[in-house]
Amino acid sequence: MKHSPVALNFEESGGGLPVIIMHGLFGSLANWRGVARNLADTYRVINLDLRNHGRSPWADDLSYEAMAADVLALMDRLGLERAKLLGHSLGGKLAMVLADQAPERFTQLVVVDIAPKAYPAWHQDVFAGLRAVDLDHLASREQARSQMGQFIFDPEVRAFLAANLSHNTQSGQGAWRWRFNLDVLQQSYLETSQMPDLQGFFCGPALFVRGAGSAYIEPDDRSIIIRDFPGGCIHTLKKAKHWPHVEDPQGFMNAIRHFFIDGCKGINKTS
Fold this sequence. Notes:
Rossmann fold, 9 strands, AB_hydrolase_fold, two-stranded antiparallel sheet, single chain, seven-stranded mixed β-sheet, 2 domains, hydrolase, alpha/beta
């Protein structure tokens, strides 16, 4: 099935070999600006908003195939024949799909705290919390965080989600909206929780970064990671959970930089 790509919003910085960064579910490129700035002293960084997120267009199709077509179209638009690819969570699954579908377009792969497998419906409380926000009568992001609190107990998660609220100061009632397409994210959630079948076509260096406090990559997942990515390796950050680039930024950047230079051999140098 041929998918019609949308023109993704992105920010570009730096110069050198290109690195594409893809955020996770409910996120945006804003979550990765710190990493983008850090890498821009050495690389040409393309930090993007996936479809139905951030400032990218909305579309009914949120399949991995459709999202992959968006990224490949952006690469063609920018004249990028090959690039390093970094993706977190949902973006990490998309990175795996892209590398498997078009291995000739990617030199290295970094997958952050996600494995090539299906996951349970862990975000139902998040959707309930988002639906609890009364956008028509909302006064502030602080109020939104409070309204989410009956379903989402972690204040950091509430703050992360509330950052996706956009306020139109020209409007009165109903001036607030979500930057992500909540309806489509929820309708597509069971699909995005699954993992498309991979053929193991990407044999290049593939780094899987996991947070020791996260349940997304378990010890038993090593076998499926190496099955699908024979050039893969796993690096665990002891201080991190599901957002290693936020919870252990120094350890995360150390691992990424060594990997980009020396592949999986470089990971031994991070200790």
